[in-house]
Every structure is written in structure tokens, then in C-alpha cells.
Amino acid sequence: MKPASTLSTAFLHPAGQALPEPLLALRRQRGAALVDMPLPTRKTENWKYSSKYLKLTDEMAISLPTAGKAGSALAVPGYKVVFNNGVMMPEASEYPDLEDILIQRFGDLSEAEASELAERLDSTLDNKTVQFAGVNSARFEDGLVIRLKPDAVLDQPLFIIHEVTADASGSAFPRIFVDAGRNSRITLVEEYISHGHEAVMVNAVTEFTLAEGANITNIRLSMDGDNVQHIGATGVLQQRSSRFESHCVGFGGPLRRHDLQVRLEGEGAECKLNGVVVTQGTQHYDNHTSIEHVAARCDSEETYRNIAADKSHAVFNGRIYIHQDAQKSNANMNNKNLLLTTGAEIDTKPELEIYADDVKCAHGATIGQLDEESLFYLVSRGIGRREANVLLTMAFINELVSQIPVEAVRETVQSRLNQFFEKAFQEA
Amino acid sequence: MLSIKNLHASVEGKEILKGINLEIKDGEVHAIMGPNGSGKSTLSQVLAGNDAFEVTSGEVTLNGEDLLEKSTEERARDGVFLAFQYPVEIPGVSNLQFMRTAVNAMRHHNGEPEMNAAEFMKLAREVSKQVDLDPAFLKRGVNEGFSGGEKKRNEIMQALLLQPKLAILDETDSGLDIDALKVVADGVNALRSKDRAILMVTHYQRLLDHIVPDYVHVLAGGRIIKSGGRELALELEERGYGWLGIKDEATAASPAN
């Protein structure tokens, strides 16, 4: 028998010491806890379908050096913060200096602020199921903390561009923490993109805490290149009457993993989680979501769609956990999957655990192919077969794409989808 | 225009059409009537190019060209239009986007410039009035949540937009009340032209009160067993199919024509 495979300790040695002491201490502590961390295998339940895509080499343990110039080519309709290889680029970033919305690099925090942040980092994620979030905590070299004071409203979306320059093998560990005060409101767009062709790992963690009545819209675009293994996690803690809306759009890669964990801790909180994934070639994408109804009278609505072409592989695992005291919970989960070829694979698994007796909980998962009858109808009107395929495939996700609340993001998504269609459907 | 010779077709190994012969000239309106199961819908689907049906022998030409050799979309671009008996609902594709894509595919084929969204919207609004369909239906998914009558009017609207050479109407009268039937019939009559042929497939003759055919054919057991003028439809209405010696599913005597 082969010895148990554990995460190479090379992954636990962070570079970059330009952080306040409380954050350095946190890193050391998390690193120590991860010595001998087992790497997921086929027998690891939450990595069952994806462990085979994870290929970490010791070269990838090296922190990618920050590229000199970055992010300047990206025009965004709003404020932007650019990260290159996990490190913020102030000269490429543009955001307002406001009294009630503080946007700060981890390195710029005072000792007291850093100490408070260190207490709260990782608090939104279950470290037993999201082991790689711990690796980020042991390794982040920089990070962004966004603090919205009560009633603060950011007037435009804030784009966080996470860019990776893969001129050599290595890894990047971007980290974001958003602390939304009472009745505050923000739209945060995260875009993950890459340049270069060497094998790299991006290990990203974004956390949100929402105080009473806070309202956050988070758009997450996963668009890294085919050389990037991306392991990301998003954690959300919601207090009373807060609202969290998420739009995750993912394009496949050699390994793509996103864990999204939401805890509804205050009465009347609600979350809406939309997800779209497209994969082709031999690409992979795995979404694991978890919604915990802790308090009573919370609503959750989750809609995920996967489209897999060629020999690609998409995975969806949606968990809803309704605690005993979470009476009058209203939870809806819907996952539909479209296989464009017989060689593609999609695995979907809804997991419901309900311990309260007065709840409304519905879930549905389907896997299908393009409808022949619809295809015939379209081509019988003179529409070419390729275009008919595109129309029907787009129809499968149109509802979700059209709900993305920032036009520029919808355009980016559409243009990436067009590239996808270009390859997925060759003209007959 | 359309010439069908000894057409045989089967679905899942079962022969449905057993030797159809039919000639339709420019400007003519033909009605094909017959009991359920006689092969009327199969004939429509085969002409439009549905792969679910296998043509085992015979030939079909449209203006001298072999129709059966062509794909469904090529047939459509050459002017074949099928108004479906049961138009499919396609949520996620707007009716407007669908129709514009179809019209532009046709225009592209004819070497005409594509219509932009605004130009097409103007055209679509006019045509929707012609079939008494609220323009709000343009924004909905294709046939999504439409009533039976609305679906049929949406089919006729597409025919009016695409201006086919040969329009095949498959049970376009089914599921319509009198008012809707009149609207649909008006739309079909607007399609009548000396350059266009219309083939109506129907179980009942009531549509023929509004759209007067030049010829009526009785299809039974996969063959045309009788052909005549419009008076044949009236006779069928009065006497049913029994006097021809057929019942639903029954095999008929020798083909006419």
C-alpha cells in the first residue's frame, strides 16, 4: 500500500513578512495545524469526483513573485482593486477614500485592527470541510479588508481583479474579508484571470460578515487559464434581516473547485445563490455549496446550472442544513445540468438535513441533453444547426446570466460564453 | 412546385406512408384530409425533414430539386415552411430573438442584408397585429405558456415573416375557437399568392369554410385514396369517411391519382 499522501510542508512556508504581527501569528498557527494535512483522495467524501484533478508539485509551493506591471489594461465601470499573484497593486487600483467605507490592505492595518481581523478570519468557513481555506490562512501574503460602517452604501460596484502571472510554476493566495455593518450595502465583483502558461495553483478565500440589515451582492467570475488549478472558498455569515446575493460564473480548467458556505444566523436573513458553470475539452469544475439555516424565518434560494461539453466533467454538491431552532425556514435548491456530448460527465448531489419540523424545503436536480424537438423546430425555420445549438444552450442559462446585476459583467460573461460555443459547436 | 412520387416512410420500423403521389402547382391550395392515424402528420414531418421518420422509397422534388437530399434548414431556406400541430415551447429563447434569427438566416441565404433589432421589431409588431397577437408575446420565451390558439397564431406569424414558397399547415385548426379560427384563416388567406403553394392537413373540414382549397385529397392507411375539388370536403363532412370504405387505421383500396 502506498503511504498516506499529505500536503507537502513546502506549502506551509509563507513568503512575505510585511504584515502586522497578529496576522503573522495567525499564519504560523494555521501552518502548524496543517502539518500532515492529508491530501484528498477518491475516498474523501467532499472530493470524491475531483481529487484526481488535483496535481500539486513542490514547485507549485513557491509563492509567485509579483509582476511589476499589472491590471492596467482592465477597464471596469466602477472602483477596482487589482491583485497580482495574491498581492495588491496600489498603483493599478482605484477606489475612493471614504469615511464610512474603509478599504485597506492587510499590511496597512494598525496592530489593534490586525488583531481584531485575526480573530475573525476563518470564522465564516467550516475548516473541516474546506481544508484548503486553512492553507490560504497559513500562506496569505497580503489581503484586503473592507469595512462598511452602519448605513454605508458604496455607490458603484467594487471590482477586485485577481490576476495571476504564471511565468513560472508557483502559487498565489489572495484573501478578502468584508465586514458589512448594519444596513450597509455593497456590490463586490471578483474576477479571477491569468496570464502565462506554467502550472500554478490559485488558492483564494473571500469572507463576508453581514450585520443586521446589511445587503451584499457578490459576483464571482472564475476565468483562469488552462494552466491554473484553482481552489477557492467563500464564507458568509448573516445576521438578522441581512441579504446576500451571489452570482458565481465559472469556466472550467484542469482543476476548479469553489466552496460556498452560508450561515443564516439571524432571523429573517435571506440568501440567493446563482451559479453557472461551463466546461469543455478535458476541463473540470466542482462547486460545493452549503447553506445552514441556524435561525428561524430565513429564506434561501439556490439555482445552479452546469453545461459540460466534449470530455469535460462538472460536479455540483448542494447541502442544506436546517437546525432544530430554524422553524419557518424556506429553502429552495435547484440544479439542472446539460450534457452536450455523450463523453461529458456531470455528477450532482443534493444533501438535505432537516432538524426543524415547520419548514418548507424543496430541491430538484436533473441531467439532460439538448431537446431534439426544440432543435428540429429551430432548424425548420432555416436557422443553422450550430446557431440552433447555441440558442438552446444559451437558453439553459439565460435566466441566470440575465440576473447578473452589472451590465459590464454580463458582457464579459457573454463574450466568454461565445468563445465556449465557438469550440463546443463546430459548423456541420 | 411540389411533386411527390410513390413516397414511403416509416417510423421505428413501422411503415406509415405507403406510396403517396401528389402534384401541387404554384398558387394552389391543397387540403389533405383523413382519419386519425392515416399518416397526415407523418407526411408533413417528412416534407419538413424530421429525422425521426425514415423515407424508405419514393421521391419528392421542390421546383425540380430533390427535397429529400436536403437538410431541414436547407429545405426551410428553399421555402418550405411547416406550421406545427404542436409547436414546442422553448423557455430562455425569446420569441423575438428566435424570429429575427430565422428571418436573418433566410435573408442571408437570399443574399440580402440582415435586419437589425430595431428594424425587425417594427416588422414584427406589424405582423403580430395581422394575427391579433399582443406584441408582449414577442418578449416571452418561444411559445412559452401560450394557449393553443396563441401558438397557432404564432406559427402563422412566422409564415408571414418568412414568406415561404410552400406552406404546410399541420392541423392548424385544432384547438381553436371560432374567433381564433377566423384570425388564423385570415392569416393563411393573406399568404395565398400565385407564387406560393399551401398544403393544409386537417381532420375536419371547418377550416376549409374559411380557406377554400382548390383540391381535396383523402389520405387513409398511408395512401391517397380519393382526390377531388372542395365539394369532396363537404361530402366528407356530411357522410364521414365510412362511405369510402375506410375506418381509422384501416387499409384503403387502390390509390387515386
Count of distinct strands of chain A: 20
Listing every helix as H and every strand as E from the N terminus to the C terminus, the arrangement of chain B reads EEEHEEHEEHHEHEHEHEEH
What's the overall geometry of chain B?
Answer: globular
Q: Biggest interface pair, residues each?
A: A-B, 23 and 31 residues
Q: What is the strand arrangement across the widest sheet of chain B?
A: 6-9-10-3-11-12
Give the tally of structural domains of chain A: 2
**What structural class do helix, strand and pairing data of chain A support?**
alpha/beta
Order of helix and strand elements from N to C terminus of chain A:
HEEEHHEEEEEEEEEEEEEEEEEHHH
Poorly predicted spans of chain B: 248-257
Main sheet attributes: strand count, strand direction, barrel closure of chain B: 6 strands, mixed
Which class do the helix and strand fractions of chain B yield? alpha/beta
> Between the first and last Cα atoms of chain A, what is the distance in angstroms?
50 Å
Poorly predicted regions of chain A are none
Rounded Rg of chain B: 18 Å
Brief summary of the model shown:
The complex is a heterodimer of chains A (428) and B (257). Chain A has helices at residues 21-33, 111-120, 131-139, 372-379, 385-402, 407-424, and strands spanning 79-84, 87-88, 101-105, 144-148, 158-166, 170-172, 175-180, 185-196, 200-210, 215-222, 228-238, 243-251, 255-264, 270-279, 284-293, 299-308, 313-322, 330-339, 345-354, 360-368.
